[in-house]
Write a structure and sequence with these properties.
alpha+beta; elongated
């Protein structure tokens, strides 16, 4: 004679199979997200942006009372031709800053990666910042500016390879 399975045992078996299926599906979704190329690209973009903003801020901040520390930070934040220019001109620049006795501080207002080539380890960044310059006996002066930077991945981190002032306004109209 055929005996029907107990309803409680049958319900437990169905729930176990359902839970197993959900666990497998969640695991596959997690694995897919963790190995998704767009997620890696986003993480690289965010890393490059943070490094670019910090490097531009570093190169816009300098205190004549801690000049060696500030210029060392400039050199640590750069690579390539920009780094070579900073190293080469350091002595003359130190003399000028000591004479002027200025303190400049920068605050990043916003930034964006405008181009990213992960394979080549290159990126371009635009950073808007406010620089405050203080000189003894004078009122502090604030200046907002936009900077364009080229980043290169060097020694496992993003560093500035070039930095220029971004043009303001419509340059085509201004030239006419």
């Amino acid at each position: 004679m055929f005996r029907s399975p107990q309803p409680l045992l049958l319900a437990a078996l169905v729930l176990a199979l359902l839970a197993g299926g959900i666990a497998v599906r969640a695991g596959l979704a997690w694995y897919g997200a963790a190995h998704d190329a767009s997620a890696r690209y986003s993480a690289t973009r965010d890393e490059a942006l943070a490094a670019g903003e910090q490097s531009v801020q570093n190169l816009s901040t300098l205190d004549h009372r801690r000049l060696d520390e500030g210029l060392d930070l400039w050199e640590e934040s750069t690579t390539g031709e920009l780094h070579a220019q900073l190293v080469e001109g350091r002595g003359e620049f130190e003399r000028q800053v000591r004479e002027a006795r200025t303190v400049s501080t920068a605050k990043v207002l916003t930034g964006a990666i405008t181009e990213l080539d992960e394979r080549a380890g290159r990126a371009r960044v635009m950073v808007a910042l406010r620089v405050t310059v203080r000189a003894e006996g004078r009122e502090p002066a604030d200046k907002n500016s936009r900077m364009l930077g080229e980043l290169t991945r060097a020694d496992g981190r993003w560093k500035l390879a070039a930095l220029t002032q971004a043009p303001v306004g419509d340059t085509a109209t201004a030239a006419n």
